[in-house]
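Pair request: fold both.
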Amino acid sequence: MTGTGHILVVDDDETVRDVVRRYLEAGGFTVELAGNGDEALRRFAGREPDLVVLDVMMPGMSGLEVCRRMRERTAVPVVLLTALGEEEDRIAGLRLGADDYVTKPFSPRELALRVMSVLRRARLPAREPAPDVLTDGGLRLRLSAHQATLDGRPLSLTTREFDLLAFFLAQPGTAFSREELLEKVWGWNFGDQSTVTVHVRRLREKIEDDPAKPTRIATVWGVGYRYDPVRP
């Protein structure tokens, strides 16, 4: 495993910081460390990293608040470290725009692979599929501009939400499993499939008249999800 890039590792546990640093450096990365949220933001402002590994549960400023503040400035990739079973933290982090998460206790090798996977996706050249504009009823996506509107109103979508919605619109009426969506939309060969569930839920909140009774993004029981176009 080899990689390149500058990684900021933020965790209040010195042992965790040291283990992650040694493993990432062995993989070819340069690593900067921070022990709390304030220090992380200072180092972030001094030199923007290529990716941030960020612990959620820290004394003082939480990792979620650090993520929120970073997202106000840039779209730098973020991999969260969360406690096993803390689903709400993972969901909150994804809503803030985090790119992935690893649950503690974790394998340093798995974390390094996640870092490489997220960086690889972030560095892919932007593709402009044809056609550039996808529409369904009042829903309109302009891919090259990364803009989405519903009935003329701008939709605030994260990068992941936009990519998932564009994929659905480009292939209406086809059912995809969560595993297929992880791989086809985001290029993940591994990962927690609940990530897909969270993003589908968020999309429904933004494009469905009644998210509890979705008509566009349908659940296909035993399979996954299917996008049903609005009927005339």
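--- second member of the pair ---
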Amino acid sequence: MSPTTETTTQTTLGIGGAAESTDMVLNIGPQHPSTHGVLRLRLVLDGERIQHAEPVIGYMHRGAEKLFEARDYRQIVMLANRHDWLSAFSNELGVVLAVERMLGMEVPERAVWTRTLLAELNRVLNHLMFLGSYPLELGGITPVFHAFREREELQNVMEEISGGRMHYMFNRVGGLKEDLPAGWTARAREAVASVRSRMDVYDRLVLGNEIFRGRTRGVGVLTPEAAHAYGVSGPIARASGVDFDLRRDEPYLAYPELQDTLEVVTRQEGDCLARFECLLEQTHNALDLADACLDRIAELPQGPINQRLPKVLKAPEGHTYAWTENPLGINGYYLVSKGEKTPYRLKLRSASYNNIQALAELLPGQLVADMVAILGSLFFVVGDIDK
């Protein structure tokens, strides 16, 4: 080729110190590392160190709060059921408590105790998922098999009464859909005992694992001040020393009579390990509460499980707020009524939405390798963020 026709192209990729001083922007997602949801993290890195973190949400947004306004008070239970698909019964519970408060309705005692029982069983189901999936995110595959085996025991009794495995739709305004099947309480007691007998596997297999402790101890420390500032709640906040649990501090359902059994588990370290320990101990306590509820239900006389409602249910004009201690933290519903059969406004305060905002505080200064450990320890469901 002659010199007159030859062309040469040069591209400069980076030069010495100029390249070193340039921050890298890394997008994690949009997906959750264990694939139960769609979340994006926008990280600004300086080498292996995170300088800035921004959770980017909204990929699963369903507009549930606007849909509430177009459904009557029976139908909104179905919508409220679904934002945290691991806490479906507890989600239903909050919205029916809000409507019942607006109506000034007293729920039969049998329904109160049964609701409390099912809420605690749902808490165990939720926690088992994270007790198994969190070690999985750190490279330990075995615990998740144990977790799903225990979940199946409890799923079977929940499915027997409601017909659903995830979305139970068993709560109704005024009580529950129907009474418990014959012999169900005995089968539930057996399931609780069976799960409790094998819970020590997490103490031995997970907490006793030096690699797990090395990856989580002292990592992702959330201070009590930051937890308060971001509205963090549930086991994540209690792992940072925030001693607050609605079941004790503003009790509802049958919790006023369960104070001797209820234990509010706290830690002071605020790291990933403390969050896992709080979750595990809270699971043990939820099994104890379930047993206490089963004992009480056995003593109750036969009676109604719900209130008879008019064909068209209308809440009186006014507003109220009902909040519950859901498995992942505080879940609240602010209900505004204009006296119609549909809510004028129903604002949902979900636990995961506040909890995940703390990532902006937790991740800066941490290594990229610790990012997954911190993210997984916040125990969130993306549908609960994108409500």
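Observation on the second member. Residues 109-137 form the longest helix (29 residues).
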